[in-house]
Amino acid sequence: MSLYKSLTRLVAIFAGICGISYAQDHQLEQYVQQGLDSNLVLIQKDLSMKKAMNGLEVARSMFLPNITFDLTYSHAEGGRSIDLPIGDMLNPVYTTLNQLTQSNNFPQIDNEQITFLPKNYYDAKVRTSVPIVNTDIKHNKVVREKMVELSKTETETYKRELVKDIKIAYFNYLSAVQAKEIYLNALNLAKEGRRVNQKLLEAGKGLPAYVIRSDAEIAQQESKIAEAEQQIKNAKYYFNSLLNRSADAEIHYAQAINNGKELKTPELSVNIDGREELRSLEGNIAIQESLVEMSKQAFVPKVSAFLDLGSQAEGLRVSRQSQYFMVGAQLSFPIFQGNRNRLKIQENQIAVAEAQNKLDQAKQQLELSAEVAKNELIAMQKNYESSKIQMEAASTYQRLILRGFNEGVNTYIETIDARSQYTNSQMANNIAAFKLLSAIAKLERENASYQLK
User: Fold this and answer.
1) How far, rounded to the nearest angstrom, does the alpha carbon of residue 248 sit from its chain's CA centroid?
2) Which of 225, 227, 200 is nearest to 213 (CA)?
3) How far apart are CA 52 and CA 58, in angstroms?
4) Quick one: pLDDT at residue 104?
5) Kind and range of the H or E element at 21?
6) Coil, helix or strand at residue 125
7) Cβ(176)–Cβ(228) under 8 Å?
8) Which residues, 6 or more positions from 453, have their beta carbon under 8 angstroms from its beta carbon?
9) 66-74 and 112-115: which strand pairing?
10) Quick one: the chain helix, strand, coil %, rounded to 5?
11) Which residue spans traverse the membrane (predicted)?
């Protein structure tokens, strides 16, 4: 069976890339989705995105009032003091009053010494503060929003790269499987040739050299089968690592049924507008521009207000007299900073120019990469068509030589050569077919045309 007749469900015409269309293997799509759900690197990027979103929520919360509880307790002895001669001032008066009233209702009092530091003093309050004018908070929120977008685009970028890697790894695995089948078919033909030559030798019509040559051909095919099995194992390990599965997990694929369709690539085009890398660089420009605006607004006054509700007294007493409230507002703006802000503005403006230059470079590089992928796809299509023609010619040649050998016209060496040509053409067609599929996946990646769910 020719490789072309065994490839259809994997290789119809790819849908969705610049006019290319092929029927996607449903099993492959399931593996792609599994990789997007379980890949370890992607899980880490999802965690980074959640971290960025938490940072955005923190930035948004800066607009809300801030309520805190403060409690201060202090006790002091000594320190500065002031003498108050209240006894010297009032005792003569109290003595006169006692004499006039003929009583002791007005006792003598001592002079007082009042210290500045309070004894056994507390101040407990609940402070509510709210920003009224603060441009830094606004710009910080904008920067955090852009950082969330950057994290999302970074995740999407890796997803697209992962989709491409999964598809190419899947095609490489199938190519190795198909190669083993080709070598197995060649081995069966070689064994059949040895059986025929052995019968002819026993009948006195064959040559021992043909039997020896058959044994050599069998050994050669067995060696190629062993090599193909190793390639299958390596391809399986890599594919399963992309899906975060056990290295020995089986890879399922649907057997293809010939539907007579050709692998064709209609008119191609390149469109990199959907590349997440460009969106990421544009977001970086927006962040730098926001930092420029923040620096320019450094001299805009910052205004905030506060309300205190609390109690303060000595001796840990709480009463109506100890309770209080206080409202206030605070305004601040810089007057002179040694031109640091002007230099900061210039630095941020340079960062904007650098980010814009990176965007221009990225556009140029991505367009070049997409053009290369398109040209590679065209070359792989031509290579596949050529290999298919060569395989069909080799198949016809093998049948003619085998018929001639059975009729005694051609030698056994010619049948070996014809069989070798057919096997090589099958392998060339197998490689060309899966290289074409890989080229389609690469162009799909370059155009960012795969629909991420």
Assistant:
1) 26
2) 200
3) 10
4) 85
5) none
6) strand
7) yes
8) 33, 36
9) unpaired
10) 60, 15, 25
11) none
**Tokens found for residue 165:** 């890697």
Do residues 195 and 189 touch, judged by C-beta distance below 8 A?
no
Specify the amino acid at residue 26: H
**Contact between 333 and 307 (Cβ < 8 Å):** no
Residues of the chain with pLDDT under 70: 1-25, 254-267
Specify the pLDDT at position 265.
54
Instruction: Say if CB 318 and CB 311 are below 8 A apart.
Output: yes
What CA–CA distances, in Å, run from 423 to 198, 284, 384, 403, 426?
Answer: 23, 54, 16, 18, 5
**Count of alpha carbons within 13 Å of 266, Cβ hemisphere only?**
10
CA 354 centroid distance within chain: 24
3-state class (DSSP) for residue 74: strand
Residues 6+ apart with CB under 8 A from 188: none
| Token output for 37 | 């759900």
CB 435 within 8 A of CB 383: yes
Rounded Cα distance, 151 and 44, in Å: 11
N-terminal to C-terminal alpha carbon distance within the chain: 38
Note the pLDDT of residue 256: 43
Q: Is the pTM of this model over 0.85?
A: no
